[in-house]
Amino acid sequence: MMLIPDIAGDTDRKWRRLRDACLESVRRLNIPIFGGGQAIAWNAPHLVVIVGGDDTTRSFDPACAYGSLWSSGVRWNYGWGVDSEDPQPLPLSLTLGYWLMLNSRLGDRGVIVSDGAFQAVDFGASSRECVELGRDLAGRAERVAMIVMGEGSTCLTAADWAWNAERGRLSDRHVLRALSDGDADALARIELHGTATGRAAWQVLAGAAGDQRFHGHLHANGSRRDRGYFAASWTSQS
Questions:
Q1: How far apart, in Å, are the Cα atoms of 36 and each of 54, 109, 111, 112, 120?
Q2: What top-level branch of life does the organism fall under (predicted)?
Q3: Residue 99: in which H helix or E strand, if any?
Q4: By three-state DSSP, how is residue 218 classified?
Q5: What pLDDT sits at residue 37?
Q6: pLDDT band for position 99 (50/70/90)?
Q7: How far apart (Å, rounded) are the C-alpha atoms in residues 64 and 142?
Q8: Number of separate domains in the chain
Q9: Beta-bridge mates of residue 53
Q10: Which among 71, 95, 219, 225 is most buried, taking Cβ atoms within 10 Å?
Q11: Is the pLDDT of residue 163 over 60?
């Protein structure tokens, strides 16, 4: 939630740097934008999938889905589903990914013209389930881009949870290396534990990457308010 300026405030430099890093990572996907004053890249994705954790694994119909931040006191609703007869509100992880995609447009200009999909994955899904889901998503178009939303460990400094805090720090170091190196195999091997809610979404990414080689670029990492965070982008080397 602290990615949203109306919640974090623009005076907090650390959150602003993280937000800028996330927006830059989305821009590197070369999502095609019509009317934004930018040429559409030759390798622009045909499909953009936003992936994030939730209490259950499910996809959302783009014609009915919408993101909303009203419950957090921010007047922001967006998506075709706002006016749908069968509205499907997105979970927070997908809402934040949607917000990043829309705000990655320079000057907020232009219309995103690639197809889109919203995919939630159960926080507790097994590694195998996540990898298989990622493979399925990657096969839905010739060129697929993903915006993958997930938090690092969430009890890094709690003194009364010392064991979990140490486990969380070790897990975050593992994730950091995997994201920096574009290492899908390492992401797929992350162990399930209760303090890293991003694990399932990252393993969907690992499945989508498959055997392809990627160049990883780390835009930001650190911890804030007992939470680990990362912002990275992967570019195919093929």
A1: 33, 5, 7, 9, 29
A2: Bacteria
A3: helix 92-103
A4: strand
A5: 64
A6: very high
A7: 25
A8: 1
A9: 121
A10: 95
A11: no
Counting residues of the chain whose pLDDT is more than 70, the rounded percentage is 83
Q: Tokens 């949203």: give the residue.
A: 4
Q: What is the DSSP letter of 167?
A: H
The number of beta carbons lying within 10 Å of the beta carbon of residue 62 is 15
Tokens 């195919």, residue located: 236
pLDDT band for position 160 (50/70/90)? Answer: very low
CATH number where 32 lies: 3.40.830.10
218: phi then psi, degrees, rounded to nearest 5: -90, 120
206 token code pair: 């690992």
pLDDT value of position 231: 94
DSSP code, position 196: B
> What is the pTM (predicted TM-score) of this model?
0.89
- Residue 175 has which token pair? 């994730």
The residue with tokens 């009364």 is 160
Burial class (CB in 10 A: 0-12, 13-18, 19+), 107: exposed
Mean pLDDT across 175-182: 94
Whether 6 and 96 have beta carbons less than 8 Å apart is answered as: no
Residue 93 CA to residue 70 CA, distance in Å, equals 15
- Residue 127 is predicted with a pLDDT of 95
Q: What average pLDDT score do residues 84-99 get?
A: 93
What pairs with residue 48 in β-bridges? Answer: 116, 145
For residue 51, give the amino acid letter. Answer: V
